[in-house]
């Protein structure tokens, strides 16, 4: 068995031995920023895109909390938390990106 190399990404404490609290903090901050931005963007077209993003971001963060307290400690829990953190950002980016593209390309009605 090889000795852990702290310079390898897969050997970092955040993905191997951490409790997951840091992932919850980072995910919570990311989710809070996304929620604030999506609330501010809720009047943009397409209708419902911001609400869809809000529901997705909140659901993903709640999934992070469930994983943190429901999955036994180890690499699986930490990998799931990392993936959910990334998914929060992607959900926001897709919804906000969609709104930006629609607002910049579709003329206003009337």
UniProtKB/TrEMBL annotation:
Keywords: Membrane, Transmembrane, Transmembrane helix. The chain crosses the membrane at residues 21-41, 47-67, 79-102. This is Uncharacterized protein. It comes from Diaminobutyricimonas aerilata.
């Amino acid at each position: 068995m090889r000795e852990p190399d702290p310079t390898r990404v897969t050997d970092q404490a955040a993905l191997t031995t951490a409790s997951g609290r840091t992932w919850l903090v980072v995910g919570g901050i990311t989710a809070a920023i996304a929620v604030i931005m999506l609330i501010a963007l809720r009047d943009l077209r397409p209708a419902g895109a911001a609400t869809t993003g809000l529901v997705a971001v909140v659901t993903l963060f709640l999934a992070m909390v469930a994983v943190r307290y429901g999955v036994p400690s180890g690499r699986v829990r930490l990998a799931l938390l990392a993936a959910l953190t990334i998914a929060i950002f992607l959900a926001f980016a897709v919804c906000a990106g969609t709104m930006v593209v629609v607002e910049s390309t579709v003329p206003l009605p009337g």
